[in-house]
Amino acid sequence: QSQLVESGGGLVQPGGSLRLSCSASGFTFDDYAIGWFRQAPGKEREVVSCITSSGGRTHYTDSVSGRFTISRDNANNTVYLQMNSLKPEDTAVYYCKVGVYWGQGTQVTVSS
Predict the structure, then answer these.
(1) What confidence tier does 95 reach under pLDDT thresholds 50, 70, 90?
(2) 2 pLDDT above the threshold of 90
(3) SS (H, E, C) the chain
(4) Which residue, 11, 24, 63, 91, is most buried by CB atoms nearer than 10 A?
């Protein structure tokens, strides 16, 4: 059974950094593009970033471009989201998605 497990969330001060991880199992990881999404309270879930199956191409939503970096390690079935210069508006539950499968999410809170 396909499974995605996010980790690395937490509480961080504005300007700080976090690195999220998404570990995958149950499918051929390097066959799929992967996306990171987030959902803030009272808002719709939005795409943050995505990466192609080989890792050769990436995409970022405008609000995180230049601050976040997506990467993947196909040998270890893991995708990462390095988040720098975090802002309070980055506060949300972050999810990874592959095909129709979602992880359970990890909370990121940016607050002083």
Answers:
(1) very high
(2) no
(3) CCEEEEECCEEECCCCCEEEEEEEECCCHHHCCEEEEEECCCCCCEEEEEECCCCCCEEECCCCCCCEEEEEEHHHCEEEEEECCCCHHHCEEEEEEECCEECCCEEEEECC
(4) 24
**Within 10 Å of residue 84's Cβ, how many Cβ atoms?**
14
Mean pLDDT along residues 9-18: 98
d(CA 35, CA 51) in angstroms, rounded, equals: 6
Contacts with 3 (C-beta within 8 Å, 6 or more apart), sequence order = 24, 25, 26, 101
